[in-house]
Structures are given as C-alpha cells and as structure tokens.
Amino acid sequence: MFLHVIFRTLQTIPVMLAVSFIVFIMNYFGGGDPVYVMLPLQATQADIEAMRQALGLDKPLVVQYGIYMTHLIEGDMGNSWTQGRPVIDIILQRLPATLELALTGIIFSTVIGVPLGFYVALKPNSWISKSSMGVSILGMSIPPFWLGIMLILIFSVTFGWLPSSGRGETVVLAGVHLSFLTLDGLVHLILPGLTMAVFNIALIMRLQRAELLEQLTQDYVKFAKAKGVPMRRVILRHAFRNTLLPVVTFISLMFAQSLAFAVITETIFAWPGTGKLLIDAIGVNDRPVVVGYIMLSAVMFSLINLLTDLTYALIDPRVRVR
Amino acid sequence: MISRLNARLGESELWLDFRASLSAQIGAFIMVVFTLGALFAPLISPQDPYDLTAINILDAYQPSWLFGEGDSRFLLGTDAQGRDILSAILYGARVSIFVGVMGVLLAATIGVSLGLLAGYFGGFVDNLIMRIADIELSFPSILIALFIMFFWEPGIRNIIVAIAAVEWVLYARTARASVLSEREKDYIDASKAIGLPVHKILFRHVLPNIMAPIIVIVNVRFAWVIILEASLSFLGAGVPAERPSLGRLILNGYEMLFSGYWWTSVFPGIALVLMVFGVNLLGDWLRDALNPRLTK
Amino acid sequence: MTKAKMHQNLLSVQNLSVCFHTRKNTLTAVDDVSFALPAGVTLGLVGESGAGKSTVAFSILRLIDSPGEIVSGRIEFEGRDLMALSEQEMEGIRGNRICMIFQDPMVTLNPVYRIGDQIAEGLILHRGSSKKEAHERAITALREVAMPSPELRARAYPHELSGGMQQRAIIAAAIALDPALIIADEPTTALDATIQAQILELLSRLIKRHSTSLILVTHNLAVVAEMADMIAVMYAGRIIEMGYKADILDHPLHPYTVGLLESVPSMAKTTSRIKQIPGLMPSLDDLPPGCSFSPRCSSCRTPDCFERPPLREISPGRWVACHFPLT
C-alpha cells in the first residue's frame, strides 16, 4: 500500500514537467509584450531596452527556460506585473476563499444529490422521484453563470434577502481568513454555493441512481438475499457500498471542476478568490499571475487526482493489488 | 409528409421507440425550432441588431412589451444600445449553435481519428496519444479553454479550435477501446490476409461499430459545449463583441442588472437554457435507445 | 413400500406456477410443477437451459423478482407453507433452514467484503452470535470444506482466491448454519473440470455427514448420475419424468429422457456420430399446445398429444408425463 502511494506520487512529476514546459512555450510565443504592460506610455527606447534586460527577456530561449525552471523549483514564479508582489504570495493569499467556496458547493451537491439519487432508485414511482428526474435534466441545462445571475436577481435585487457580493465577515484562523465561521460569512456563502452546486446535484443524483440500480441487479445481491439478509441491509451494506467507488470518484472530479468553475462564480459574486484573481489578471494582461495560476492549478489537480487514486484503493480492495 | 416519413421509418425499432417517448419528441422539437430560428434569423427577426443604421440609441432600455410597458416593436425589450433583444437572441443563437456544432464535429473528427490510430497501431503512437490525453484530463476543461483563449485572441475560429482541443479526449478513448476489442476479431486477420489496406479496414469495419456510442457522446457533449462556449463568452474570452453569442448577451445584460434592467440577461438566458434542455432531453433518450442493443 | 413414503417429506412443492411479464405478453416459465423431497435425499433437477429448473429453485426461497411472479402453488417446508409466510418470516428461513449455492462464485461473493465476514453475516443474523463467535464458526466451516489455511483465507477478499476456493467459501456459508435443505444451482458449471469433481465430492461428503437434503439443479447428466438419489427431468417449464436415479437412468420412460441419455457421449460406445434430439426446445412465447415435446417426439404424432399429458404416478415413486411412455 505504501509503495502504491510512492509510485503514484512519482507519476505526477512527468505531468508537472510537461505542463511547465507547455506553459513556458505558450508564454514565450504568446501575444503581448510584458515590457509594454509595465512601462508608462512615455517610456523611451532606452527604457524599454533596460527593462527588457532587467527581465531577462533578451537572453536566448534555452537560457530563459533554464532560469524559469530553476525559479519554479524554488517556488518563485516571479512578481505580478501590476501588483509588484510575488505571484505565489498573491495566489496563496486568495486560495482559502476559493477552497471555501468549492467545498461549500461540494457539500451542497453531495448532501442533496446522494440521498436523492438513492431515493429515486428505490422508489421510482413516487411523485418526488418523477419530478426529481425531470428537474434534474433541467438542472443539467442551466449554465452556472446564468443561474448565479438569476439568483442575484431574485434574492438580492428583488427581495433583498441575501447579499450579492463579497465574503462578508471573516475570522482569522492560523493566519488564514475564513468566512464560514461567522454568520455573516455563512449568509454570503449561500448564493455562490448554490450556484456552484445545482449543476452537480443533477449529475450526482443521476449517477447515484444509475449505479445503485446497476448494483441491485448483481448476483452478490441475490446471494445476500438468499442468506436471509433483510432488504434494508442488502441495500445499505451490500449494494450501496459497491456504488461508493464511482460516486466518490465523481465527487473528487467535481471538486476539481469546482475549483475551475469558481472562476465564473467568483466573477459574478465578486468573491475574492483565485478565480477572480485570474480573470482580473487576464483582463490587464498580467502574465506572471496567469502563468503562476496555471502552474499552481497543475499542482493542485495532480494532488486531487492522487488523493482520488488513494481513496480508490481504500474503498475497493481489488485495486490494492500492485 | 409526416405520414410518409412515418411509413418509411415505421419498420425501424428506433423510430417506434422515439414515437413512444414524449420527452424525446419535445427535445427534438425544441432543437428543430432553435435550428430553424437560427438559420432564418436574418429573415424572421424584426431587426438586424448589428446593423448600426437600424438601431436607435433613443430606444435603449425599453422594457419587454410582453410584460406591459414598452414599445410593441420590442417584444422582449432592448439593451443599452437600443438593440431589440429578440433579434439579438436569434442572431446570438446562431453563433452559439454554430460554435457548438463545429466544435463538437471538430472534436469528434480529431478524437475518433486519433483514437483509431492509437488503438490500431499501438506501441509508441498509442502511448504518446494516451499520455497527452491523461495530462489533459487531469485539468478541468474550462480552464484549459480559458488559457488557450488567453494566449490567443478572441474569435469564432479560435474558440472552435479551443473547444476541440479540450473535447477530443472522450472520443479518442471510446474509439481506441472499440478498436482494441475489434482487433481481436478474426475478420481483421482475414482482411489483412487478402491485402486490404489499413485505412479501409478501419473505416469499413471498425467505424460502423462505434457509430452508436459516438452519436450518444456527440449529443451529450453538444449540450456541454454550448454551456462551455457561453461561459467563456460570459468571461469575455469567447466570441468577440461584434458577433455575440447568447453567453455574451448575458454578459452585457449582467452589467445592467443592478439598475433594474433585468430583461437583458433573463431572456437570452432562458433561450440558452431551453436550447440546452432540448439537446439534453433528446440525448437522454438517445442514450437509452441506442445502448441496450450494444451491451445487452 | 418406497423409501419416500417411510419418512415425512421435508419439502413438498405443489402446483407451482411462475410467470414472467414482458412488454408484449406474459410467459409461463414454470407450469404446474409438483414434487416431494424427503429428508436426507438428493434430488437432481435436470433439463436444458431455459427449462425452468433455476426458476423452480429460486421460487422455493421466494427470490423471484419482478418481472417474474409466483402465480400459484403451495410449498410446504418443515410443516409450514412458505407461500403463506410474511417476508420477514421468509428472511428467517433463507440462509438458515434453506441455503443456496450459486453458479459463478466470482460474482456471487461481494467483492468489497472479506470471505470470513460474508460467512459470519448469516451467523450473526440468524443465531445472534457475537462477531467473535461468528468468525470462529466461520473458520470452522472453512475447515470443514477443506479450505487450506482457513484463518488466512477468512481474512481474504474474494478476488484473492481461485474459483474453486471461492466456491468452497460459498459452500462453507451454506453449511455454517446446518440447514435442513441446500439448493445448489449449477454449482460446478463455472469451474474447471478438475475442480468440478473435487467440489462435488466435497458436497457429497458434507450432506451425508449432516443428513442435509439437496436439490441439485444442473444440465449435466454426469453430475446427477454421481450425486442424486432421485431425478426430475424438466422440459419447457414442466416436469416430464421423475423417479429414483437407477430407474430413470436404466429405464427411461419419456422420449425426451431417452433422447437426453442417448446424447451423452460415452467412452463405451464406438459410434462416429453423437446422437442428438432433432429440433430445439420451444421458447416460452411459442409453446405448442398440449404436450410440449410432441413436435420433436419420434414416438408419437397422434392427436392425443394435443392434450397436455398430466404427470402421473405409473408405479410407486415413478412419475411420467406422456401419453405413450416407453415400456
């Protein structure tokens, strides 16, 4: 098992290398000259040359790649062209907000979607089930960004019940700002959290239902029944347990997706997370921030994939053989 | 005409299944309505919203006529420049559908081709393609598309390519899996023995077998691609402002939301949701209709 | 006079009929089947695939799920009519007084739980044993089925065992609670030929030791010839012949049984062709009227066969459903 962990961790390295290389190439050949972004309009040719030298942009490609990689390993991704501070500091500072948002979305989705999927699988003819299945297709059809706008329109603009932007009050815990520990913060989490969750509720519900129905046709379920195991236990301990693998895989995929979709939600709700940071940086062409975001995303997603794989091994004994 | 169509298709089990499913019919109906609306947009919309001579800034901010006030010329109201929202939706749907269809087709073509190659030749080719696929899959697609658009300029052609770059993996995997299972079968050896060239084997034998799952995937992903393009456009990284898609329209509307001009983002959104809903309804039915024949 | 009548019957199935509801129509999978099983006796239920043998087996435990339905019948077991019991009472009998062994052990065992846990589950449920007691009993059961290193294997997961060992584990689960009746549905079909013999021999030893009754469902005549005391032959949902093994195998009365026996390849005979019964068993939605075998029957083509022949006891313990049984 331990070897499994080591092996999987090592497998992420080539991925990171590949991503860093691709990013570097895109950066190098991408449009937009940083020098022009950073210098005021009246800059003279001499100033431009000086800046270029200072940034190391006059050196050959290979050398630039070398410098880039050395800095990267130290965690130095340069400074933001607009803020002047180290990119990595900026991103890490905004990360907790995004994590909070993503987790809220996941919690909403799982807590509503899994039991609902369960119920629909077991009682397909009740009106709750029929309407849930119909509504779920609708849920899968609503683009999250529009949902966010509609929620703001209804709950903020029209009724004024819920706030439409920002995080609200935060509490500092171990140097990190957290908003879910305050009532105001929680209230601010509701609309953005729902925006992130609705699409996924539909998906999880349908997945859980399909998986449960599939498992109930399996022979081991017949065997359990033939042993006199009561139906309730057959469903919960035998069938449901076997749906965990695909459902948990999906939830972790959802988490990764949520971190990405936070980009949209944060834009709409002016949520001070990494997503909004990215969009703002794109807007002003602050390339180090964008590049830094890409690299950190690669790290995060590799980590999430790794954790998912390890959870696999925990849940399904067949995977552990290696 | 319907009855003649009925008579010819009447034998087909798929058609009978379709006729039995109300939701599939509703889905197909919605898709047909939107496709026709988008195709004939220049003919049926009351105004060409991108013809600068047709719009009048004094008409700006008109609320929807359907809801009481406003001008009868503007059924769904106007935006900040005086453009008729209904017309904008028709033209916007055009762009959304076009990008969606082209994006999915390009992704499917590239994906299936790469998958067939990877599965058939195996070895280095297979490894290379699958490694790239794995790396790509470890990233959420919206971010990849966003980054591609960041390093490139906005534009319809670019966004189609970006979508294809993100979507091809699923098709490749499916095609590859099919090839791998078909490869074991004897008729492949027989075909090789009589000297049939590789591409003919792939096209004539393997391809028809994977058509059904590919169709289902195309339908399901089409819905997603529409949402993807709309989301990218909403972020300003999609289609350019001159030829807005529904996503871009919603962005324009969002900016006016807090001033109380809700119709500019609500109606394009409803159109978008309806369109995707139709695609999903049909896709849901298609998945069930085509699958039992394959697996069971 | 016969051995059967000397003991009280453990199981008595009377007029069992099971239907399956499809979109188009309703099919009769089991048509008015009756038989009796004394204690300590092994009944071989033979027939082709689709003849209804497994359905009969599952019906005894009332494990028929929609779209199937047990339409009629009485199933007397240990003095109670199983059809009249509540689901809860039935759960008390399953895995306790009547245990079942399935065909493919790999898919029968739950892949995410250990072998020992799956055996112990029944003990905890039916005997109220503690986890510790149940596990010890499970290990004892594994030892009884000749599982090598039972303590180690009890902690193993199904995929870690070979097919033969998996089936032993399932048999262990079946005998752990010392049931009165075991129903085995094609227990060796999914196993290698060499393992098949071992498993059958094991099963035979166990039921002798515990005086357990066994219903052995199989399409394999060789298996039945080895293990059964009585044989019932099924065709298209009906029992067409039943009796003691020696009688059936040496003096078959129904043309189908004759054909079945003749089609078994034998080392003794030196024929160049294997005999086959011409035609196919009819599918359930296309049953011929009257005697379901008549279209393939070489010994009768008379109009009498348009009437369904009832299963008659032509001599004590000997039943056949044919208008013109061979003598």
Describe the SSE topology.
The complex is a heterotrimer of chains A (322), B (296) and C (327).
Chain A: H1 2-29, H2 34-38, H3 45-55, H4 61-74, H5 87-122, H6 127-141, H7 144-158, E1 171-173, E2 176-178, H8 183-216, H9 219-226, H10 231-269, H11 274-284, H12 287-315
Antiparallel strand pairs in A: 1-2
Chain B: H1 2-9, H2 13-20, H3 22-39, H4 41-44, H5 85-121, H6 123-137, H7 141-151, H8 156-183, H9 186-193, H10 198-234, H11 246-255, H12 263-295
Helix pairs in contact in B: 3-5, 3-12, 5-6, 5-8, 5-10, 5-11, 5-12, 6-8, 7-8, 8-10, 10-11, 10-12, 11-12
Chain C: H1 3-6, E1 9-21, E2 26-38, E3 42-46, H2 53-60, E4 68-77, E5 80-81, H3 87-93, E6 98-101, H4 105-108, H5 115-127, H6 131-144, H7 150-154, H8 163-175, E7 181-185, H9 193-210, E8 213-218, H10 221-227, E9 230-235, E10 238-244, H11 245-250, H12 255-262, E11 312-315, E12 318-320
Parallel strand pairs in C: 3-8, 3-9, 6-7, 7-8
Antiparallel strand pairs in C: 1-2, 1-4, 4-5, 9-10, 10-12, 11-12
Helix pairs in contact in C: 5-6, 5-8, 6-8, 8-9
Describe the fold and architecture.
- The complex is a heterotrimer of chains A (322), B (296) and C (327).
- Chain A has 322 residues and is mostly helical.
- Chain A has helices at 2-29, 34-38, 45-55, 61-74, 87-122, 127-141, 144-158, 183-216, 219-226, 231-269, 274-284, 287-315, and strands spanning 171-173, 176-178.
- In chain A, strands 1-2 form a two-stranded antiparallel ribbon.
- In chain A, helix 7 (144-158) packs across helix 10 and helix 9 (219-226) packs across helix 10.
- Chain A is globular.
- Chain B is elongated and about 75 Å long.
- Chain B has 296 residues and is mainly alpha-helical.
- The mean pLDDT of chain B is 81.
- In chain B, 73% of the residues lie in helices and 0% in strands.
- In chain B, helix 3 packs across helix 5.
- Chain B has a single domain, classed as MetI-like fold (Orthogonal Bundle).
- Chain C has two domains: 10-97 and 183-191 and 213-266 and 274-327, 3-Layer(aba) Sandwich (Rossmann fold); 98-178, no CATH class.
- Chain C contains twelve helices and twelve strands.
- Chain C has helices at residues 3-6, 53-60, 87-93, 105-108, 115-127, 131-144, 150-154, 163-175, 193-210, 221-227, 245-250, 255-262, and strands at 9-21, 26-38, 42-46, 68-77, 80-81, 98-101, 181-185, 213-218, 230-235, 238-244, 312-315, 318-320.
- In chain C, the strands form two sheets. In chain C, strands 6-7-8-3-9-10-12-11 form an eight-stranded mixed β-sheet, with helices on both faces.
- In chain C, helix 5 crosses helix 6.
- Residues 1-7 of chain C have low confidence and may be disordered.
- Chain A binds chain B through residues 15, 18-19, 26-27, 29-31, 137-138, 140-146, 149-150, 152-153, 157, 256-257, 259-261, 263-264, 267-268, 278-279, 282-283, 290, 294, 297-298, 301-302, 305, and chain B through 134-135, 138-143, 146-147, 150-153, 223, 227, 230-231, 234-237, 247, 250, 253-254, 257-258, 260, 262, 265-266, 269, 272-273, 276-277, 279-281, 284.
